[in-house]
Amino acid sequence: MNEINIEAIRQDTPGCEKLLHFNNAGAALQPLPVRQAVLDHLELENSVGGYRAEALANERLERFYTALSTLLNCRPDELAYVENATRAWDMAFYSIGFEAGDRILTARSEYASNFLAYLQVQKRHGVEIDVIPDDASGQLDVGAMEDLIHERTRLISITHVPTQGGLVNPAQAVGRVARKHGIPFLLDACQSVGQMPVDVQKIGCDMLAGTGRKFLRGPRATGFLYVRASLLDELDPPFIDLHAATWSAVDRYEWRPDARRFENWESNVAGKVGLAVAVEYALNLGLEAIEHRVVRLAEQLRQQLSALPGITVHDLGENRCGIVSLRSETETATDIQARLAARGINTSVSTAPWARLDMEQRGLEELLRASVHYYNTGDEIRRFCAALSSPD
Ligand SMILES: Cc1ncc(COP(=O)(O)O)c(C=O)c1O
Fold first, then answer.
1. Where in the chain are the domains?
2. From the CB of 102, is ligand 1 less than 6 Å away?
């Protein structure tokens, strides 16, 4: 496993000088090479025009597919560039031809936008939603999940790492069950890609959605979708355009042969160049090394927080990642966030409507979310805890 050179990494991350950034689950700080790649492309667009710039950047744009295929362990033609994780997930989800009586199997930690989509197809087509209970640790219970599988289960769809805490759901075990029963498996990996190895072959998912701006440290409004090649022709994308398909005769069209059929013709080209660089940056550091450091920092943070009077840590699961969720007996999460922001400390707040099944079950209205990345340090954790426990 590579050793991460923290000093060099922080030099590549000028924001570290001014900020204490514990909102990496919101949007991480971009490293300089990512910012430079975006700026260079914008500059090129200014000097030669957008279409010419795109043609000239062809090799850099193709690197998005090759680098991401290495990261996720899939083929480049199984990847689509989409503007964010939600739309990437939607393109996969709404491609499934749900019929009345079909069932969707999901988990308690599900992200709001995904659950809203289940409710929408329930209203439109009369599907049933089955929710997997948690095990004693708070992660989804794989045994209970298998018991819930029904002859009409059309999709297993879960969130790998939820928006509201450090839980890492056992995606690989879910994948084994999905394969055993031949049920398509859609994984929301928005909060996991970039902070831990995510290998679609090992996990056994058929579709996976992710975003650029969070733990991958890419530009905002960039995201991606993986779809297993063998599933492509079973899906009917909800939107079509002249990039996704060819109008081959007046009354006919042909889909592109690859997963780019889930893309738009028009997209954020500078963002794609930047995301390719962000993926390469993560690959150069090594995802095992990144995970090792992130997990260690987050555990340090949990330990120090647990020692503070009136603070409770709320992360669930057997394996926890870089997202740390907490509450104070004396201050609301919103107040803490504002107070820390005034001191140059970035955190975020998770509220019940973002993950209602989980938050309601635990009787939580809101949580403060402090999410670390590998460029954070032990000293920042100590400063964070000191600021948290000393109101102005
Ligand atoms: C678990 C999860 N899924 C999906 C998303 C949505 O990602 P995006 O904003 O890129 O659409 C988020 C964003 O916070 C998330 O936490």
1. 6-29+286-389, 34-284
2. no
Other C-beta atoms lying within 10 Å of the C-beta of residue 92: 29
Ligand 1 center–CA 59 separation, angstroms: 29
Which CATH code for domain 6-29+286-389?
3.90.1150.10
> Does residue 85's CB lie within 6 angstroms of at least one atom of ligand 1?
yes
Q: Is 159 in the pocket of ligand 1 (CB under 6 A)?
A: yes
Q: Which residue's alpha carbon is at the smallest distance from atom 3 of ligand 1?
A: 190
State the average pLDDT over residues 63-82.
98
- In this predicted model, what pLDDT tens digit does every residue of 105-117 receive, in sequence order? 999 999 999 999 9
Give residue 251 CA to ligand 1 midpoint distance, Å: 38
For residue 327, name the pLDDT band (cuts at 50, 70, 90): very high
Tell me how far the alpha carbon of residue 165 lies from the centroid of ligand 1, in angstroms: 13
CATH number listed for the domain at residues 34-284: 3.40.640.10
355 Cα: distance to centroid of ligand 1 (angstroms):
11
- Residue 2 is predicted with a pLDDT of 80
350 CB less than 6 Å from ligand 1? no
Digit-coded pLDDT (tens) for 228-242: 999 999 999 999 999
Ligand 1 lined by 163 (C-beta under 6 Å):
yes
| One-letter amino acid of 268 | N
pLDDT number for residue 390 = 87
CA of 354 to the centre of ligand 1 (A): 10
pLDDT of 1 over the 90 cut: no
From the CA of 89, how far away is ligand 1's center (Å)?
10
Q: Which two tokens stand for residue 60?
A: 């850099």
Residue 392 pLDDT class (50, 70, 90 cuts): low
271 lines ligand 1 (CB under 6 A): no
